[in-house]
Amino acid sequence: MSYEGKLQIDAGLRPGASFADFRKLLEKYAQQESIMVVGHNPHLSQFLGTVISESGCEASIELKKGAVARVDMRRSSGTLQCV
To answer: Rounded to a whole number, what is the largest CA-CA distance in the chain?
Structure first.
């Protein structure tokens, strides 16, 4: 995987962002084959937990410093492949 364009900064990952903001970020790049999202806790763990929950509730996911999680997205939720 390579990326030669400019890095994108999005409000969906800023401190205080809501899950709705994060969802907008995902929708904005939905046509891309893959995206890499870099953020901080507790938001990133919470957003990840909500994305992989089919019911829309938050699954308990704990991302340690420097952790990487791969999620394969479907229409409304994703499948956690690895942490």
So the answer is: 37
> What is the C-alpha separation between 53 and 46, in angstroms, rounded?
11
Stated as kind and residue range, the H or E segment containing 71 is strand 70-73
Q: Return d(Cα 20, Cα 29) in angstroms, integer.
A: 15
Over range 31-60, report the average pLDDT: 81
* Contact between 13 and 23 (Cβ < 8 Å): no
In this prediction, residue 21 carries a pLDDT of 93
pTM across the whole model: 0.75
